[in-house]
Amino acid sequence: MNEPSAPDLDPRNTPAAEPVNIHYDTRLPKLSRWRRMQIPVIAWAVYFIIRVIGPTMRFEVLGWQHAQRAYDRGEHLIGTFWHRSIFSAIWWWRNRGTVVMNTTNFDGQWTRKVIERLGFGTAQGSSSRGGLKGLVVMARRLEEGHDVAFTIDGPRGPRYIAKPGPVMLARKTGQPIFMFHIGLERAFTLEKSWDLFQIPHLFSRAVMVIAPLIYVAPDASRDLMEQKHAEMQASLERVRDVAESWFSLSEAERARIREEWNAS
Fold first, then answer.
1. Is the confidence at residue 48, as pLDDT, over 90?
2. Running DSSP on this structure, what letter comes out for residue 48?
3. Fewer beta carbons below 10 Å: N end or C end of the chain?
């Protein structure tokens, strides 16, 4: 994506001596020379792996009509998905100009190089640091006509517990929350990682399951915000359960679920 960098995306624009609220602090952390040298190497290796495996994947999508209706109304999506599905998600959504929340820590720095090369924009921040500033950037990008997305239980978990950022952003912008999960027929799972990260095997089939959209009124009360957050959590759990079980089902069961999800 060749989107110009906005000044507030560059943490170097914040004077080092100026106190910054942690929720707006997107300055890069100090890294050793060795760690800085690792960033481009890891980014190149990960990008290479994605470019090798991604084209061999075969996707089926359930529930795309929810996204299409939003696009037909001129809306833009606030995407949410679990950290476990990053590999498959960035391949599917590549080169669409989607802006994702990206942490400034070491992992976030090499990840940013990978996803920007795959056609994404980035808003620096996370639930632990710089999150509010990241939301401001994402709101601006929605106004400019881009979709945005969150790995909703990232960057460090707990696994499958949704953060509140998308509900806050939906209330501010009026744009819908879009929840999906990608299940894989064959994948290598990093069992020791907090998110049980999955890397698809070559030529694996994949299914992306999309839930009905969630809207948040601009005058939503705290109670309603909490209700919408619970609704988002439940939807994310539901699409995960369907996608993760998909390839263990009989063809008759898949046909029934396919009809249900594509007709709603």
1. yes
2. H
3. C
Q: Alpha carbon of 34 to those of 39, 41, 103: distances in Å? A: 9, 11, 20
Q: Provide the CB-side half-sphere exposure for 212 (13 A, CA).
A: 8
CA distance to 29, 33, 41, 115, per residue, from 36 (Å): 11, 5, 10, 18
pLDDT top residue among 182 and 37:
182
Q: Distances from the Cα of 248 to the Cαs of 253, 257, 261, in angstroms?
A: 10, 13, 18
Beta-carbon contacts of 143 under 8 Å, excluding residues fewer than 6 positions away, are 173
With residue 59 as reference, give the H or E element that holds it.
strand 58-62
- CA dist 25 and 199 (Å) reads 32
Q: List, for residues 211-236, the tens digit of each pLDDT value.
A: 999 999 999 999 999 999 999 999 99
CA-based angle 33:37:39, to the nearest 5?
120
8 Å CB contact between 12 and 26: no
